[in-house]
Amino acid sequence: MPSPARWFTTRAHYLRWDGAARVSERGPVAATPVVMNALAKVPGPDGYWAVGTTSTSASSTALPRIER
Question: Which of 5, 8, 28, 37 has the most CB atoms around its CB within 10 Å?
Fold first, then answer.
């Protein structure tokens, strides 16, 4: 099992289905930590939005994060 610290990076990790297998992809580099919590299906060519925050705990410094 990977170290939990691996997931507290400045790039989200996604698994995409390519029709035959899941393919690992990384999101764009951010200036703050990226902690994604959910995916939302969006009509149109963008497909999905990933939503989350910049912190693993609730704090006054945590900010929302959305990747399209």
Answer: 8
Length of the chain: 68
Q: Global pTM? A: 0.65
Helical ranges in 5-68 per DSSP H: none
Look at phi and psi of residue 19 and say left if phi exceeds 0, alpha if psi is from -120 to 50, else beta. left
> Tokens at residue 39, please?
């995916």
Taking the C-alpha atoms of residue 14 and residue 25, their distance in angstroms, rounded to an integer, is 5
**How many other C-beta atoms lie within 10 A of the C-beta of residue 25?**
11
Q: Over the stretch 11-52, which tens digit does the pLDDT of each residue have? A: 988 888 889 999 998 889 999 888 888 988 888 876 888 999
